[in-house]
UniProtKB/TrEMBL annotation:
<dbReference type="GO" id="GO:0005886">
    <property type="term" value="C:plasma membrane"/>
</dbReference>
<dbReference type="GO" id="GO:0022857">
    <property type="term" value="F:transmembrane transporter activity"/>
</dbReference>
<protein>
    <recommendedName>
        <fullName>Peptide ABC transporter permease</fullName>
    </recommendedName>
</protein>
<dbReference type="InterPro" id="IPR003838">
    <property type="entry name" value="ABC3_permease_C"/>
</dbReference>
<keyword id="KW-1003">Cell membrane</keyword>
<comment type="similarity">
    <text>Belongs to the ABC-4 integral membrane protein family.</text>
</comment>
<feature type="transmembrane region" description="Helical">
    <location>
        <begin position="272"/>
        <end position="296"/>
    </location>
</feature>
<keyword id="KW-0472">Membrane</keyword>
<feature type="transmembrane region" description="Helical">
    <location>
        <begin position="363"/>
        <end position="386"/>
    </location>
</feature>
<keyword id="KW-0812">Transmembrane</keyword>
<dbReference type="InterPro" id="IPR050250">
    <property type="entry name" value="Macrolide_Exporter_MacB"/>
</dbReference>
<feature type="domain" description="MacB-like periplasmic core">
    <location>
        <begin position="23"/>
        <end position="245"/>
    </location>
</feature>
<feature type="transmembrane region" description="Helical">
    <location>
        <begin position="331"/>
        <end position="357"/>
    </location>
</feature>
<dbReference type="InterPro" id="IPR025857">
    <property type="entry name" value="MacB_PCD"/>
</dbReference>
<dbReference type="Pfam" id="PF12704">
    <property type="entry name" value="MacB_PCD"/>
</dbReference>
<keyword id="KW-1133">Transmembrane helix</keyword>
<feature type="transmembrane region" description="Helical">
    <location>
        <begin position="21"/>
        <end position="41"/>
    </location>
</feature>
């Protein structure tokens, strides 16, 4: 029995059982579609998080006040902060030859308004320096960013996001206008380009002022964090060591800061989301096993009903291995048909989700497509072995007599 004969016989047998074939293909397609959608969601989430962190800038190091490690005691004390980070601490980081830029950050929330307008809204106020534009890769739609000046100088200027501009200056230019923040006035010198959300920070709804002005506005000397850009990727790890030593020297030998590198955050999220993707894919794969059981049951029924056909093939000289190949070919064809339909349904679901949530990039990696087809084919072959062996073991005389 040639390969062509095997395929012809398998297709002929499939056509004679449309209902059973439909059930097998439906079960297999549901399993493959489930795996396709869940893998795509997990992979899309992983890529989205990684891209969000990479968009923060290159060679980024984040210095936070306080330690995240357990520092002893009973019970353990978490996040103890002996002292705040200050502007002097941020300035001292320039002692390291591996650091290209330092942007101290102070944050708070305050009502903002424009004189002569009844509208007043709450806005996030971010205090920083001219270096923030470089470190966070911010772009300007109008005007210019904070001036390059003494970090301790409190100047009454600000840069606003697009949403703030649209709400408070809907009819005219914002540049040169006065914006009231709490009980102080700041002249608008720039408007950011549409930035959207970046790791939970909405730059479209933010007001950026000099860090010294923010500290005076919120009556605080401590910094929320310090953003540092290293000169290169190899220099980033050397900069971390320098930062730790500089802060320890300034804080009386206390290692009381947490230093996070951009790479470490990206790698951590990448590992977590990859594990979650594989986990949910494994859970969805259970439906493929269920489909495989259905393939086996239907094929066993098919063997029983095709006893005479099997006996005739044996009488004409078909070997046991040829009969096994015939039934395994049927199982493989049905599994592949279900896999192709499942992938198509999964892609349709992803297309609908992309239409509903255009801001989230849905992707389906090529390796997942190949894996879905391979796993469905393997499932069909594995669960098709028992029916194939049962057919091959039939005695030709008894099969022809339907016994």
């Amino acid at each position: 029995m040639l390969i062509h004969d095997t395929l012809t016989q398998a297709f002929g047998s499939i056509k004679t059982q449309p209902l059973r074939v439909s059930l097998i293909i439906l079960a297999m397609s549901i399993g493959v579609a489930s795996v396709t959608v869940l893998v795509a969601l997990g992979e899309s989430a992983r890529n989205y998080i990684v891209q969000e962190f990479e968009a923060l800038g290159t060679h980024l190091v984040i210095v936070l006040p306080g330690r995240t490690e357990t520092v002893g005691g009973h019970p353990p004390i978490m996040g103890e902060t002996p002292r705040d980070l200050t502007l002097d601490d941020a300035e001292a980081l320039f002692r390291s030859h591996y650091i290209a830029a330092v942007a101290p950050v102070s944050v708070g929330s305050a009502p903002v308004s424009v004189r002569g307008q009844a509208l007043e809204r709450e806005a996030n106020i971010l205090g920083s320096t001219h270096a923030l534009q470089r470190v966070r890769r911010l772009t300007m739609a109008q005007g210019h960013f904070l001036p390059d000046m003494d970090v301790k100088r409190a100047q009454q200027v600000c840069v606003i996001g697009q949403t703030i501009r649209e709400e408070l200056f809907p009819r005219g230019p914002a540049i040169g206008q006065w914006l009231r923040i709490h009980d102080r006035r700041f002249r608008v010198i720039g408007v950011l380009s549409t930035e959207g959300q970046s790791i939970g920070v909405g730059f479209d709804e933010i007001v950026i002022v000099p860090v010294a002005s923010a500290q005076a506005l919120f009556d605080t000397q401590g910094l929320f964090r310090v953003l540092v850009e290293a000169k290169s990727k190899p220099a980033m790890y050397k900069a971390v060591d320098d930062i730790r030593e500089i802060i320890k020297a300034r804080h009386e030998g206390e290692d009381d800061v947490t230093i996070i590198t951009q790479d470490s955050v990206v790698q951590t999220f990448d590992k977590i989301l990859t594990a979650l993707t594989l986990t949910v894919a494994g859970i969805a794969g259970i439906s493929l096993a269920v489909a495989g059981v259905l393939v086996m049951n239907v094929m066993l029924v098919s063997v029983t009903q095709r006893t005479s056909e099997i006996g005739l093939l044996r009488a004409l000289g078909a070997t046991k291995s040829q009969l096994q190949r015939l039934f395994l070919t049927e199982a493989a064809l049905l599994s592949l048909a279900g896999a192709v339909l499942g992938v198509a349904v999964g892609q349709l679901i992803l297309f609908v989700l992309q239409m509903l949530y255009p801001a989230f990039p849905f992707i389906f990696p090529n390796w997942a497509l190949a894996a879905a087809l391979a796993v469905s084919l393997a499932t069909g072959l594995i669960f098709g072995v028992l029916p194939a062996r049962k057919a091959a073991k039939m005695d030709p005389v008894s099969a022809l007599a339907k016994r």
